[in-house]
Amino acid sequence: MITQTSWKDSFVKKRLEKQLPNEIPLFPKRQCVSLVIVREFDSTAVLTTEGQTLDVELVRCGRKNKDLISRVLLQKRKQIAPERRTGRAFNRDLGWGEKCAYMEQMCGKCPDCLIYGFAATSGEGAQRSRVWTDSGFAIRSYEAMQRSITLNAISDTTRGGISGSAFAEREHIRPQVFFPTIETAVDVTPSEFMYILRNILATTRYGAESNRQGFVQNHVVAMLFSRGEVLSNLALTQGVYDRLLERKGENLNEFPLERSEVVEAVLDVLHEEARESYLPVEICAGEELQALLASVRDLWRSEEANEEWLRELENDHRAYLEKLSK
Amino acid sequence: MIELEDFLFFSSMEKGKVAETAPLLHNYALAYAMSWAVSPYYHEHQAPEYERHLQPLNHEGIYIFPASPVEVTHRLMQYNTTPEPFLMTRAQSLGYPNWGFIKCIRPGSRFETYALSYNPLSFPSRIRLGKWMSQARLEVEEVDPERGKGKHCPAMINVQDLPKIPTYFTSMYNVLPTRLVMGAEWENEVEGYWVGEVFLPEAVFWWR
Lengths: 326, 208
Description:
- The structure holds two protein chains of two kinds.
- Chain A has helices at 11-19, 76-94, 111-116, 142-145, 190-202, 233-248, 259-276, 286-301, 303-325; strands at residues 32-41, 56-60, 68-74, 118-119, 126-127, 131-132, 136-137, 146-153, 166-173, 178-186, 216-226, 282-284.
- Chain A is an alpha+beta fold.
- In chain A, the strands form four sheets. In chain A, strands 6-10-1-11-12 form a five-stranded antiparallel beta sheet, with helices on both faces. A three-stranded antiparallel beta sheet of chain A has the order 2-3-7.
- The longest helix of chain A is centred in the last third of the chain and has 23 residues, at 303-325.
- Chain A is globular and about 60 Å long.
- The N and C termini of chain A lie far apart (49 Å).
- The mean pLDDT of chain A is 90.
- Chain B starts with a strand and ends in a 7-residue tail after the last strand.
- By secondary structure, chain B is mainly beta.
- Chain B has helices at residues 27-33, 50-60, and strands at 2-4, 13-15, 18-20, 42-43, 62-64, 68-71, 74-80, 99-105, 110-112, 115-117, 126-129, 134-138, 146-153, 157-158, 171-173, 180-182, 184-195, 198-201.
- The longest helix of chain B has 11 residues, at 50-60.
- The radius of gyration of chain B is 19 Å and the shape is elongated.
- Chain B contains two helices and 18 strands.
- In chain B, 9% of the residues lie in helices and 38% in strands.
- The interface between A and B is large, with 47 and 35 residues.
- β5 (126-127) of chain A pairs antiparallel with β4 (42-43) of chain B, so a sheet runs across the interface.
């Protein structure tokens, strides 16, 4: 069976259009779509800002269980930076923003600059980010998921123990560690949302030395449609912890977690938060979400639909830049 | 009450490679965070427009004081940014920091503030603050302040917003855009509001 895929008639576009603006506004309107992502580490990873020790923070276990716990952190900038880089590699492939360089000069015109924001490094002008994130917190305690790995670089000669050989120890997280996180896209157009989604789904490595480790699977487990934010990553992790503790008791810290349990707990927390929220929240999960992701897959696999989407993205940005120059 | 749910950073002082976050939330920042004042997504010139953005709030009779720390702990962290090319070279610096330390405020830290309004005010349940747009949770309690006079204010106040500058104070925070003081004391009684035992002076955005 041959199915005609087009961006205009795709399920995902139709769903997004209900909530998102069709042009980029000059001022915030707070039309939000939050992507709830369970980030699962498949290999060891180094999540650190200090070099040898993992980034850890002392916080409350859960919201019901108020004991203190040390949690490994996935800093917000360590989530967004690799995803932006994925997007920028894609842009270069398309011939967009070729002159746009971090640390030197941001062009202010490519999707990366306009969606995630930029500050002028020369001249004037700055665009605020329309993607909101938080630091991610692991579910279980630091002790349960940490391992020190020794690095021992031996020199190639027969002489040992001379300077030039390296010997050090670094803390890693073990594989199968989960970080429940939320990324909220604010006032983006449907085509821009697809760009953000693509970056999330196509990024596979996070943390230090990420050409060798830090492999991550980003599982999109829900999308929240609302006029504001529903909850933070810390609150989400704490809610998940409460539920897993209820189900598994003290065993929680002994064995690696199972993804389906984590996802179930995340959805539970989201439904509870949505019920308590003052503003209405629509949750897209389960079958609806699977249908939506299937439509995304079809879209990116079809050359024509892909081009159609990118044309729209280009037009959205051209229209915005014209509005700015008036 | 404002409780942080992530690390909060804004640069109040820069000492060499360390950028520090002062234990306070500026009231102009709060006005933007609550979406009472609105700023555009794109800034053509990097110059603030506090007066223009905050003046409408004065007309509506809305004011928020800077938030004082209730329980604040800091943490030092390192950042370093790498450029994108495969070949990493060390070119001349742009004067744009790519490595250094940040002293930020930990999640779980709490602040307290007061907002004044003639009409009932609506608050979001979560706001975003600082350079990293970090999430914070809000707990709001409605109180009925009494008009009155007083000489001493224990809360954090913004000197720029006061009709009468205090004579003494216990601590001053020399931050941008305006200075904040705590434990202010006036020689003569000034107009203001009493919230229980706490006296708050009359204040308006951008008075001076």
